[in-house]
Write a structure and sequence with these properties.
The chain is built from eight helices and seven strands; from the N terminus they run ααβαββαβαβαβαβα. Strands 3-2-1-4-5-6-7 form a seven-stranded parallel β-sheet, with helices on both faces.
């Protein structure tokens, strides 16, 4: 949500102007962005994170939500579409929330970016390799899409210079889970799994081969 707002409302541009001391006062035509309220959000991957995004955007911003998920989901106020391309074609903002792995490698590619609307933005908070980064750069340069917000990268920590140079792209250093509360919960989850295994029981959060 923060990335969507940052891209559509041009928050980094405004921050940069203020920090450089170049602001000359309010003007009705500077830093004009767009709203996310009332727009259509497309979510790729409707697991726990995708559902949380859908709820916040629908309840907080009145967004219409469409999504694609490999299995059927019943998500209040959201419509499931038959494939990724349909979501890309219908959404004003597309958010990646799929797991990584062979099945989702380059799920967002040249074809999918071409399906998106010219005013639409793309956000990835999932895994870097679910996006063909070269195809994303090409789509942005060709103005096939209006902007992008990224927290993960295909070859991180390397980030393409072309993405760094674009004013309509917001880049974050893989900090989506970086809150004190999240780190405490992650540590507690590790302890619970170790203690459960040590007690001779099946740990609640196993990593199975299909997830590797």
């Amino acid at each position: 949500v923060a990335l969507m707002l940052s891209v559509t409302r041009k928050i980094p541009e405004g921050l940069s102007e203020m920090q450089a001391g170049n602001w000359q006062g309010w003007s009705p035509l500077t830093h004009l962005g767009g709203r996310i309220g009332g727009k259509r959000l497309g979510i790729l991957g409707m697991g726990r994170i995708g559902q949380a995004i859908a709820h916040r955007c629908r309840a907080g911003f009145g967004m219409d939500v469409v999504y694609y998920n490999r299995s059927e989901k019943a998500v209040e106020g959201a419509r499931q579409l038959p494939n990724v391309e349909d979501v890309c074609a219908q959404a004003d903002a597309v958010v990646m929330a799929v797991p990584g792995g062979a099945e989702t490698h380059h799920l967002m590619n040249e074809t999918m970016f071409a399906a998106m609307q010219p005013h639409a933005i793309f956000v990835n908070i999932a895994r870097g390799d679910v996006v063909n980064e070269a195809a994303l750069v090409a789509a942005l340069q060709a103005k096939q899409i209006a902007g992008a917000g990224l927290d993960v990268y295909e070859f991180e920590p390397k980030v393409p210079a072309a993405l760094k140079a674009m004013e309509n792209v917001v880049l974050l250093p893989h900090m989506g889970s970086a809150t004190v509360e999240s780190r405490i919960e992650m540590g507690e989850k590790v302890i619970i799994n170790i203690k459960t295994f040590d007690d001779g029981h099946r740990p609640p959060d196993q990593v199975v081969p299909s997830m590797l």
